[in-house]
Amino acid sequence: MQNTLTIPHLVDIKSLSRDQIISLIHMANNYLTHDGYQQLTLLDGKSVATVFYENSTRTRISFQLAARQLGAQVIDFSQLGSSVQKGESLTDTIATLIAMGIDRLVVRHSDEGTVATLANTFGNKAHFVNAGDGASAHPTQALLDMLTIWQHKSHFEPLRVAIVGDILYSRVARSQINALHCLGVSNIRVIAPSVLLPQEIETWPVTICDNLSDGLTDADVIICLRMQKERMPLDLFPDVNSYHQSFGVKASDLANAKPDAIVMHPGPMNRGIEIDNTVADSKQSVILQQVRNGVAMRMAILAAIAM
Ligand code: NCD
User: Fold this and answer.
1) Is residue 292 among the annotated active site residues?
2) What tens digit of pLDDT does each residue of 155-193 get?
3) Is the CB of 58 under 6 A from ligand 1?
4) What are the two backbone dihedrals, phi and then psi, of residue 6, each rounded to the nearest 5 degrees?
């Protein structure tokens, strides 16, 4: 397949146009085969490094698989066991990887803006993909989520999308809202207790709901989010049982949404807190489809990135 989309880096959804998002969705969808992904040679002779300073299962492994499906060599860097433990800075670590000839780096870091800074500093030598920076952005997750929504709903504009959970600390929510807005979705609801909403929420293109029944009414898409305890001050963490009662998505809550609503979750799930087993494992759940789409979307992103 001819690759017509070229981007230097992927730092944030905001740097993509609607047409570019649609192209990535189509490219990724074409990479899916009935039991896996196409095996291509687009990145033959190239190397891709996954550089993760935070924990990950799905994002890291799916990028590694995606790079292999495109023919690239994959180098996995994690700070544990590396010279970071001896005091090496992030910049020196990245310069070291680039000096070895690696020119595609997929980076996750707990500090917001890290990948943008790296792209500014090393952008003439290497390509950067943001695999999540603090609570700021997780563009590749949002793109695989858009692919999943498109596979079920075909059109974005008329959709009612409900995002439930910890919005305050969620980079996924921020990137999803940017992507949905860019694709013309005007009915985006966020459902959360006020302590889990950011101050600037008033400036976002969303409606705020403080209860599940209003927020899920006639929803086409329900996105559940985990409480990001690792970013929360201890005293902010709400009482888990009362949180689950009010904001955990239970089978009975689905009755408020459209009968064909899909249930999504970026993972990792905390079953029994933000989502019940009966919802996570229901026919409406597309959570494992999101995981499968993650490899195809990350293939599309790596294929779109070129010198
Ligand atoms: C998300 C992340 O790391 O931001 N997970 C993911 O990449 N699939 C969400 C989360 O950790 O809750």
Assistant:
1) no
2) 999 999 999 999 999 999 999 999 999 999 999 999 999
3) yes
4) -130, 125
